[in-house]
């Protein structure tokens, strides 16, 4: 391979991001907070493959969904098998539940995070490689699983400092309710078919619930009068929804009813929800038109579409980038200690000092390049909690400068106490 220096550097792939600095800190803060909160709720960590057989997604999500019909990164591998970069977590986790016999752990509470891939039109808050945090409860038919998951989502947002985002909640009913509602929606929209958007005309017979999700003004005109799920809910489905809402009230999770809220994926039953920024709030302004930060619901029908036994389950996912936008840029932390090597003769001592500091939990770095006279100034500019200069006035001299007297004493104790340096 020739690497001529005159050759043009390849661009990054459209819709991918190189996240750095304060944005990367915000991203890490989201992930760390999620890790902490999922432990509080006793969700177990899983690591999932980034790709699966294409049919895992095609069968679980359904061919009529945007994700499967337009957004998947699918390719044949060298063995001729069709594979797809995961566009979401749930289908892969469901596949793993079935292929690994995780039924034995049911009800299984799992959490994960990582990159996902969708061929979408890139814009603010919408990328082709993006990242999600994800939580699922598999093998739990009871509404308390929904309540737990929603309480976890709510606490996560609060701990991220996001207070102007509200849970919008709906029920899609059980299989029978959903079917009856679907039939009524088809009747209703069929009567006005030629006034709907082309996309909705296409969706009409196959996936009429999706029309409720439409942002096209031609469709929106007909949404307020469309049949509502409440008219079709079986007694059991109503009781289920009532148990979810009273559980949320008891857990102190604020919610609003969103009758038009549906999930794009075919396998959803009962609870469907999205956390959406309040109109006029700071978060709404930060996100612009890509408003949903966290979304999910109950997917009791999924396991069967993958050839497994009927298994009730509920879960959610949230875009890390969108959460990071709400968190805002976060400063990279200052070092606890910067070790300035003022004389290269004591460089090896600096390694020992650094090791001692770091093993005792102090973040530390060294400045040992460039003109020795300028190193101290460089350290001052970086504004650490303390500066330790080595070799300025003899090999064993190690003055520590800091406005925190406590810290000065602790550092002195560590480096002299451990015998790394000897006090003059
Ligand atoms: P949207 O209506 O915004 O396309 P969706 O229904 O496709 O969302 P889900 O599949 O439910 O989204 O994904 C859950 C969350 O993942 C979203 O609420 C959002 O925060 C995030 N998300 C989805 N797609 C993208 C993307 N292309 N780029 C960044 N984040 C995304
Ligand atoms: Mg989408």
From TrEMBL:
Q: Name one Pfam family in it.
A: tRNA-synt_His
The Gene Ontology biological process annotation of the record reads:
histidyl-tRNA aminoacylation
Ordered alphabetically, the record's keywords are: Aminoacyl-tRNA synthetase, ATP-binding, Cytoplasm, Ligase, Nucleotide-binding, Protein biosynthesis
Domain named Aminoacyl-transfer RNA synthetases class-II family profile: residues: 1-327
Nucleotide-binding as a keyword of this entry, yes or no, is yes
Return the InterPro entries for the record: aa-tRNA-synth_II (IPR006195), aa-tRNA-synth_II/BPL/LPL (IPR045864), Anticodon-bd_dom_sf (IPR036621), His-tRNA-ligase (IPR015807), HisRS-like_core (IPR041715), HisRS/HisZ (IPR004516)
Gene3D superfamilies xref list: Anticodon-binding domain (3.40.50.800), Bira Bifunctional Protein, Domain 2 (3.30.930.10)
- Under which EC number(s) is this enzyme classified? 6.1.1.21
Where in or outside the cell it occurs: the entry states: Cytoplasm
Reactions this protein catalyses:
tRNA(His) + L-histidine + ATP = L-histidyl-tRNA(His) + AMP + diphosphate + H(+)
Q: Which GO terms describe its cellular component?
A: cytoplasm
Q: Which GO terms describe its molecular function?
A: ATP binding; histidine-tRNA ligase activity
Q: Of which family is this protein a member?
A: Belongs to the class-II aminoacyl-tRNA synthetase family.
Q: How does it assemble?
A: Homodimer.
Could you tell me what this protein is called?
A: Histidine--tRNA ligase
As recorded in Swiss-Prot or TrEMBL, the protein's gene is named: hisS
């Amino acid at each position: 391979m020739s690497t001529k220096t005159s050759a043009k550097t390849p661009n990054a792939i459209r819709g991918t991001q190189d996240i750095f600095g304060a944005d990367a800190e915000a991203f890490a803060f989201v992930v760390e907070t999620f890790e902490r909160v999922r432990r509080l709720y006793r969700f177990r960590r899983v690591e999932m493959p980034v790709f699966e057989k294409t049919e895992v997604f095609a069968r679980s999500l359904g061919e009529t969904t945007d994700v499967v019909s337009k957004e998947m990164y699918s390719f044949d591998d060298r063995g001729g098998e069709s594979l797809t970069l995961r566009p979401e977590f749930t289908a892969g986790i469901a596949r793993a539940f079935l292929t690994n016999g995780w039924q034995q752990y049911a009800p299984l509470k799992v959490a994960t995070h990582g990159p996902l891939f969708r061929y979408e039109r890139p814009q603010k808050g919408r990328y082709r490689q993006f990242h999600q945090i994800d939580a699922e409860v598999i093998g739990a038919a009871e509404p308390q699983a929904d309540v737990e998951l929603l309480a976890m989502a709510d606490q996560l947002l609060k701990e991220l400092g996001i207070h102007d985002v509200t849970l919008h909640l709906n029920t899609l009913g059980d299989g029978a309710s959903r079917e009856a509602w679907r039939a009524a929606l088809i009747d209703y929209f069929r009567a006005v078919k030629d006034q709907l958007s082309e996309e909705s005309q296409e969706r009409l017979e196959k996936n009429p619930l999706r029309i409720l999700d439409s942002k096209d003004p031609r469709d929106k005109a007909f949404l307020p009068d469309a049949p509502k799920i409440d008219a079709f809910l079986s007694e059991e489905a109503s009781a289920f929804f009532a148990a979810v809402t009273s559980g949320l009230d008891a857990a102190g999770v604020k919610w609003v009813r969103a009758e038009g809220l549906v999930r794009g994926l075919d396998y959803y039953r009962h609870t469907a929800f999205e956390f959406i920024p309040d109109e006029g709030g700071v978060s709404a302004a930060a996100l612009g038109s890509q408003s949903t930060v966290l979304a999910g619901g109950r997917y009791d029908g999924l396991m069967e579409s993958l050839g497994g036994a009927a298994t009730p389950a509920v879960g959610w996912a949230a875009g890390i980038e969108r959460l990071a936008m709400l968190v805002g840029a976060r400063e990279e932390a200052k070092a606890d200690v910067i070790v300035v090597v003022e004389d290269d003769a004591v460089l090896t001592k600096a390694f020992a000092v650094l090791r001692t500091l770091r093993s005792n939990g102090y973040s530390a770095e060294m400045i040992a390049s460039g003109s020795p006279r300028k190193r101290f100034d460089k350290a001052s500019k970086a504004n650490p909690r303390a500066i330790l200069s080595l070799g300025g006035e003899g090999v064993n001299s190690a003055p520590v400068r800091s406005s925190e007297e406590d810290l000065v004493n602790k550092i002195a104790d560590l480096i002299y106490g451990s015998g790394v340096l000897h006090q003059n």
